[in-house]
Amino acid sequence: MSHLPAPSSRRIAALLPVLPAVAVLGLLALPPSSAGTDGPGPADVASGLVVLVCVLRLVRDRRRPLSRTAAVVLGLPVVGVTVAALGAPSAEGGVIGLARYLQIFVLVPAAVLLLLRDRADVRLLSWSFVGLALWQGAVGVHQYVTGTGASYRGAHIRAVGTFGPQDVMGMATVVAVGMVCAVGLALGHSRVRQRVGAAGCVLALLAPLALSFSRGAWIATAVACTLQLVLAGLRRALKVAATTAAACVVLVGGLGVGTEMLQERIDSITQVADTPDQSVADRYAMWSASTAMWRERPVAGVGLKGFPEYRDGYASVALSSASDTEGAGSAYLRQPLLSPHNMYLLVLGEQGLIGLLCLVGSWLALLVCALRRLRRTRSTPRHGTDCALVACGLLVWQLTDFAYSDIGGHSTVVTSMAFGLVAWWALGGTDEEGAAAPAAMPGTAKEAVAR
Asked: Where is the O-antigen ligase-related domain (predicted)?
């Protein structure tokens, strides 16, 4: 007589396929090594192992892993990146740049797409983003309160989490992504306990996001969350907006969380043509250098890792040679400015029109597919509205944030994981709760029958 596995055993077995993706995010909670941001971190290595595991399983089962649409959309960036790698200033730089772009925009997203099977897996990964954001946010708030954060205007108060001042945008990215996930989970048609818990997480993440002093993350989060509110419905949008506004008043007005410096930082967003600070001046100088590189080589750009090589030849005298980093456990360091802090201009300068069209074309295809599926989901709102809002919010946040940042640092793994979640919703998921996705790892259906 056969014995059926216990319900707890079945639940654990059901979680096993997505646990590698959760583990990658868990490794981002660890402090960086003494090597700083140079070289791959533990999360980068783990993401590579996840890709390897997926490849081995696909070879073993001899099945086509992705639909034709998914393969085209996710594989489109390969064209532009490969052409740019061939024209790189150095062979080593071309190989390293090619591996990095494929990791972030192709291989890891495809692996996450294969690991996620249903909406339960998507919710688990979304809550993992939220959990990582809460941890990094708690570390960041502690840094601000105790004066042990990164240096900001002469005081060690900038919240950077465990990423350190060399990856000063790391905590802001993680916290913002976690907030977008929490907003999507709170606005979806799911259990009341999930919605209330997610709403509480949104409020808890407001303070660390503010104390990151990251203008780009603020703008991207505002745009993404506003879109999520609009997609969720006007009535719900008004309720959440009122609650968030009240929380901001309490945090900033009532408790005085960084009131003066936050106000100065917010005001600096509009000071782009009047009297911008040095960081804004440097950014515009690097943006100008990127466009100058593109004008000289419009089709294929100057090649991967070419921006640092050609920067001084195109940048104006207003550009600083490096930025000062200090605090959060790190000594004073002059960090060279090796990228324009704008993903679109970085791709335009290094990969030309070919690379920009391929990469942005892939992202726009994901956005169109995600919104189309969201429209279909509205007919059955109880099925996956939260997953839809999370996916659309993450993609819009990333596309907006890329106007103020680019890839670099250990926190970039979060970007690749987010693209994988978006790809599942846009290209690989199903419309029924608990059903395995068509692009799930081969063998899932046979294992389900066996159980």
From this structure: 202-360
